[in-house]
Structure formats: structure tokens, C-alpha cells
Amino acid sequence: MAQAINGKPISGTEFNALAMLVFTHQYQQNKPYQNFCNATGTSPEQVSYWHDIPALPTDAFKADALPLITFPIEAIQKTFLTSGTTTETKGKHHFNSTDLYDQSIINAWHELKLPEPAHAIFLIPHPEQSPHSSLSHMMGVIAQHIAQGSSWATDETGSLDLEKIINATKNNQPVALFGTALSFLHLFDSIESPLQLAPGSWAMETGGYKGTQHQLTKSELHRLFETKLGLSSDCIVNEYSMTELSSQFYSRGLNQAHQGPSWTRTRVIDPITNTDAKPGQLGHLVLYDLANLHSVMAIRTQDLATQDLVTRDQTNLEVSAPYFNLIGRDPTALPRGCSRSSDETLSR
Amino acid sequence: MTTTQERIQLIAEACSHDEIQQWTGDITAHDLHAWVTNELGSNMALDAFLAHGPLQSKAIAPACILHIVSGNTAHAAFQSLIRGLLIGSHNVVKIPSAGLAEFTDALEPFPDALRELIEIRSSLEDQEKSRADVIIAIGSDESIAAIHQHVKPHQLFIPHSHKVSIGIVYDDFEAAAIHAARDVSLYNQRGCLSLHAIYAAGDSERFADLLAIEMEKFSQSNPADTLTASEAGTIRNLRESTRFCSSNGPEVKLWESSDSLNWTVIHDSSALLKLSCLNRCVYVKPLPSELDTAILGPEAKHLSTIAIHPFTQENAVSLEHLPAHRICPLGQSQQPSLFWHHDGFAPLASLVKWKDIG
User: Fold this and answer.
1) What is the side-by-side order of every strand in the sheet holding A149-152?
2) What domains are there in chain A, each with its CATH number?
3) What is the CATH number of domain B164-329?
4) What confidence tens digit (pLDDT) does each residue in B45-65 have?
5) How far apart are alpha carbons B262 and B242 in whole angstroms?
6) Min Cα separation A39/chain B (Å)
7) Does pLDDT of A335 surpass 50?
8) What is the CATH number of domain B4-162+343-357?
9) Per mean pLDDT, which range of A38-52, A191-205, B193-207 is the poorest?
């Protein structure tokens, strides 16, 4: 699998073949998932196309007694937790190693040609302060492997360190700011006059506002980036992922579609018929991530999206990871999301 | 305008129309007389000074009642409005900004003399809110809290916040399943009186099995409303999450309508009260030997109605310690009596003030 996630895009045929191998591995080694597949009447012998691999709802990761792992429980080295209030049950994604996870972050960055930051400023807690946050871990990987320099602009209590942010922007070198949408709102609220960022600067934001007092459209958020940081929409990258995955999906600019690396696939399901939504029709996102090798590769979300017509090769397989237009968390779903976790920290 | 007697006649006439009766139930002039008498001591209490101990007292209706209603169902809106009309107040009804057509469309048969007392608004200015003597708010806890912030000291505030109802079956599973299917399915579970969970004594899994059969029958004779993508997605998510748990242990078991999202029954061995995702999805749970708020969990404080079968005085009184304000026969949870104390409030008596002479 590590060879597939090496920064060189894999074809639709390669993806499908690998997906069959991963599904077989997970079916055999991950007993709770095997039982779920059996309940849906699906086993590896019956599946030849990645579409037909049973997708597990994210809520399944909340069942403590049923760890979704393909390795012995004593081999767990790292666990990422979903965000939520202290009274909510948190989902747990266990790893026996984060090597593949880290490789997915780094190689997706190159494969999707994301801008490489000269100096990164992180508006979220350092991985040591938040060891169970997959977002903090991701930022740690970016700091270590992608950025040329970095500043962590939250103090030990999780509050924004404005002085550190201002100092990091003073030397007239381009910077890249990384944070949740809510952490950026806190930054915008904190600064009286706009920050002067050097040309070539950009920002990456992630997460929504569900479960918080904030309600802001994406265009309103981008307008704030413009007025508070002087960053136009094409300098803003949105990252979409979740604790239950090992890969990320990105868009750049306003109202642009998201795409993941070639070892991922997405479907948009019409929840009424439980079949693929028509191109442009709103549905729920189902994600397939080969980097989720040691848990479950097919994840059913409660995030709403649309998908355009998918380009296929002569064998009727998708030629690349398809784009999808992310609408956001289904409003009827329970609040969750890394943006809110950050908001709770920042509100203390 | 008018006397109580005249308003009773007008309301009874309006409520005889099918469009309104589907929401209010069958209300006769005799019922309304009895209701006013029961709550205010006399059906003349709003029209004349009547003996009250050494005094003479008259009930004074608020000049203006603001009813802020939710979009879940039209029931609560009609109940609240009928109360305001009966006592002769002017009624401003704030409906959700997205509208509440099943309420506004059904107002057509109301005679002009009553229509003059009704004002429908989809938005309200602050000054219009402060004009009301009484504010009745129906909605989520968050909505109620937001409205409460704007209540002035001179205004009476009657909140009807988030509520949940449950069923309890002691015996006679076959008949109970028929009643339970009705209470769960009516109005697609969108009201406070819809059952989210049913606790069954004995073989609760057998009851779940029987309930699934009756849910299917009810669904065939009373098809469910069309679902939005969000509603359908929530049901799919619940079903798949339940399938995961049920495939990994005996604590949870799933019954579902095939090739549709018409109904879902989940047997869950935990007694903790969980909210259903609505649209005919219901939990069946074993009835613990002691059913109290500690066992039911945090949702217990939101209990509205407990529908029981068989309905006996002894069974009903045994549940008196629970926070629900109403214990009724299973099969009737969605049709409260005109006389019921809505969330514990006396619906007419809590609206009026009294003027004394002597």
C-alpha cells in the first residue's frame, strides 16, 4: 500500500485492484467490520468493483467495545478521537503506526499540487498539546515535512497567541496560516487593524460551525480573509477530512469542488433510494480511502454534497479521484467537527 | 366582542369542519362549556362578576396573546389558538418563516367574528412582541431560550419546549402493538406526543417483532410523508449504525421496512431513553423493574406523555413519580383531551387574571 501512496497517481484499474485487496484484508482481519458486511450480505468473493464494498457509518467508530482494527488491540500505538462535548460519545480511530497516515498527507500534498508554505503559522494546538486530534497531527506532519519553518500560535491553554502571529508576519516573507474556520474567526475578532501579509501568502481553513453560536457563509468567511488578512479567495485552501479517515480532500477558492488523492474515491448517495445520486443532485457523501488500511476503507458520512458526471476509462472505471461539491454537515445530524473542538478551547 | 357563549358556538361550528377537526379533534359546544366551567369555575366567569367567597370576581382575558409556534405539526398551533379565541383575546400567531401551510390553509372555515381575532405573522418586529400580554412559545429549547430573552416584566411567558413521549406495555402484546404503531406513526412522529421508545415487560424482543408487523400494516393504510434528503439520510445512518451493532452482539436488533424508509423498529436492551430520529423510527426496550429518571437518563426531564397498555388506574398511578405531565392509554397519545394540562399548565386558567369587587 505504501507503494500506491507515493505521490505518483494510480489509475482507476490500479485503484480498483487495490480496493479489492484492502477489502479482503479488512474483511478477514477486522471482525466487527466482517460481521457488518455479513449482515449486509456482502463478502469479498461477491465484490469486484469498489462501489460495492459496504460503507460503515462514522457512528460505528463510537462503539468502544468494537474497535475497528485489523491488528491486535495491544498493538495500538495511536488513537485519534472525534471532537464533541464531554458528554457526547467520541469516535475512536486506532493506529498501530501512523507511517501510512503521514505518507498520505505528504504525498497528497504533492500529487494535488498544493502550495508549499515557506513559513507556516498554525492556529491550532501543537500535537503535543492535543495528542488525540487528527488535525493537530496533520499539522505536525506539515510542519515537519512540508513547511520550511513554522510557528504554533496557540498557547498551552489553547488560546490564540496574537503577538506570535504578528511577529511571524513581520519579516516580509510569505506565510501560510493553517486553522479551523472558527480559529480564523477568533483571529479576525482579535485584530483591530488588518494584518499585512507578504505577497505569496495564503491560508488553509477547515471545519464548519455546527454546534456553535457562529453562522457564516463561505463567501462571508472569504470576505473576512480579504479584509482582515488581504487574502483573496484564490489564496484560500479548504481542507475536508474526518477523524475516521487517513486522507484529506482539498479545494481552492470560493465555490470550488474538492478532490482527494488518487488512492481515494467518493460517491454521493441519494439517501432515499440508497443509490448514486444523479449528477448535481444533493446526497450524502461516501468516502473510500485506501490509506485507511488498518481500519475500514469505506466510510459513510452525514455530509451533504453533489457530484458531477464522473469521467470513466474504457473499462468503465473512474480515471481519477472524482471531484465533489461539498455543501456541509447535514443540519439534522448531531453536532460534531474539529472546528467546534477548537471553538470550545478558544472560548475558555 | 361577544360573550363566552357566542364564542363557544362559533368555535364549535368552525371545529366541525374536517379541515380543522383533523387538528383539533371533535370539539362540541357542550365540551367547550364544560371546559370553561372546569377551569374557571363557571362558563360565565369571563362575562360577569360572580361570587367568590366574600368577593365578586371576574376573569379578565389578556387583550393580546402572541403564539410563537414551531413548524413540526399544526396541532400545537391550533390548540393554542383555540384557547386564546375561547377566552376572547386577540391572537397574533407567529408561524415559522418557511410557513406552516397546514395551519394557515385550515383557518379558512373560521367565521369572520373569529378571524378578526387572528393575525398570522411570519416575522415580528420587537415592538409587536412587546404589545402582547401573554407570550406562548412552542419550539426547541434553544428557540424558547432566545424568545425568553425578549420577554418584558409585564408579560406572562408560557413555554412549551422540547418534549418526548414514551410507551409502556405491561401485557397483551398483540393489542398493544396495534395501538403503539398508531401512536408512533401518526404525524410522522413530529409532535411532542409522538412516542420515541416503548418499554415492554417480559419478552420485549417479541413485542418488537409484533410492533414491526403492525408498523408495516399501518404504513400500508397510512403512507408516510415524503422525506427530505436530510431526513432520509438520518434514517439510513441510524439503520446502518444499528446494523453494525446488531451484527456484533445481541444487545441491539433491527427491523426495517424493505425497499423503503417507511418504518424502523430497533430493539435495544439498554433502558436509557434515546431520541428517535423521527419519521416512524422507534426503540423498543425491556421494562426495568424500577423505571425512574436515573434509569431513563437525561431525556427523562423532557417527558411529556407516557402511553400505557393495559391502561389501569393502578398502572398509571405507579408512574406518578416520573416527570411526565400526562399518562394515557396507548393508542391515544396523539389525541389529548381538551381538558388536559398541557405540559402541566391549566390551558385557560393560566391565561386569565382576575378582577375582584368587595
Assistant:
1) A149-152, A119-122, A175-180, A202-206, A236-240, A249-252
2) 100-255+337-346 (3.40.50.980)
3) 3.40.309.10
4) 999 999 999 999 999 999 999
5) 16
6) 6
7) no
8) 3.40.605.10
9) A191-205
